[in-house]
Design brief:
The protein has 13 helices and 18 strands. The chain is of the alpha/beta class. It folds into three domains: about 170 residues, D-Maltodextrin-Binding Protein, domain 2; about 40 residues, no CATH class; about 100 residues, D-Maltodextrin-Binding Protein, domain 2, CATH 3.40.190. Helix 9 links the parallel strand 13 and strand 14. Helix 6 packs across helix 12 and helix 6 packs antiparallel against helix 13.
Length: about 325
């Protein structure tokens, strides 16, 4: 994998580095990772949530994640790839790395997460390299449409409006949640309680589009409008709430729960399971690539790899049973 960095992405990584915690020691984390040398053949070790095994790779003993090591190229799926991807041997995938546990930076500034694992698994089954390119969320779909990226993993919700521009391969469910500083909003219960509050939102998200309607509902009911502000990504949005520039943010339930669990006991979450219920998955450029990706993801579902990935990141309850193209709830 090749990862391209920018100063914005690196600064975002620093935000995540301040709050991501691991069960292993710093020494173990530095010594044990995929591709690092190991000594005792077939030995295993757990670093945080990842279990590694010492195996032979090219005649050398290396640490690997066993589920990934066991994946093999599927020649039939490879032949079905668009000719330009076969020619370059690379699948270029954009990602906004501010969406834990789907894609984010760990304390070693490595890009990790459930959809990062899934994209790498797709690449291995297709027999092509995966190159991740970091991007702001709102720039990803235009980038896929323009051909700068072949696809994207950024926990995108599949909507009919977006499907006019790009294709979707869906494989997990989502809903919304309110995330706010602990003890600051004891009486908040639903969307009408947002009236008069400062709401911070990531630009380009479905919630950023919906907030105007919610604010109109407030003023129609004779209440104060929602004072909303848009931020470049989820990390800066959460930082706005943390610093008091926003009273709360509205994110996917899985992201909000991750921040609550890893936010040093500073956040509270109010789940909104009936709000923003979406089918989510990979954004794919138009032109037939979605069919190949869908078949590849379905193969990973059928052989258990998909479940292994989602279980590893403790989000198996979000997984859908079938990979589908361009389905949506709205």
């Amino acid at each position: 994998m090749k990862i391209k960095f920018s100063s914005i992405v690196i600064s975002t990584a620093l935000i995540f580095a301040s709050c991501v915690t691991y069960a292993s020691t710093a020494q173990a984390a530095a010594e044990v990772k995929t591709g690092a040398a190991c000594t005792k053949f077939n030995s295993t070790i757990k670093v945080g949530i990842i279990t590694y095994k010492c195996v032979l790779v090219g005649g050398k003993r290396q640490w690997v994640e066993t589920w990934f090591q066991g994946l093999k190229k599927n020649h039939s799926l490879y032949r079905a790839l668009p000719s330009d991807i076969k020619a370059k041997g690379v699948l270029t995938i954009a990602t906004d790395p501010t969406d834990p546990p789907f894609q984010f930076y760990n304390e070693a500034n490595e890009l990790i997460g459930a959809e990062i694992d899934l994209a790498n698994a797709v690449g291995k089954v297709l027999g092509v390299k995966v190159e991740f390119v970091t991007s702001g969320f709102s720039a990803i779909i235009p980038g896929v449409e323009a051909g700068r990226f072949d696809a994207s993993v950024s926990a995108f919700a599949s909507t009919t409006a977006r499907q006019k521009i790009v294709d979707f391969v869906t494989y997990f469910n989502s809903s919304r949640a309110f995330l706010y500083r602990k003890g600051t909003l004891p009486n908040i219960k639903d969307e009408m309680d947002l009236c008069g509050l400062k709401v911070a939102l990531p630009a380009g998200t479905t919630m950023a589009n919906a907030i105007v309607g919610l604010s109109t509902n407030c003023t129609t009911a004779g209440k104060a409008a929602i004072a909303y502000s848009l931020y470049p990504d989820q990390a800066t949005t959460v930082l706005a709430v943390r610093s008091g520039r926003g009273d709360l943010t509205i994110l996917s339930a899985h992201v909000s729960s991750w921040w609550q669990q890893n936010g040093d006991d500073e956040f509270e979450v109010l789940l909104r399971p009936t709000q923003g219920a979406d089918f989510n998955g990979m954004v794919v450029r138009k032109g037939g690539l979605a069919t190949v990706i869908q078949k590849t993801v379905q193969k990973l579902m059928d052989d258990g790899t998909f479940k292994t990935i989602f279980t590893k990141w403790n989000i198996e309850k979000l997984a859908r049973a079938k990979a589908e193209i361009n389905i949506s709830t709205r």
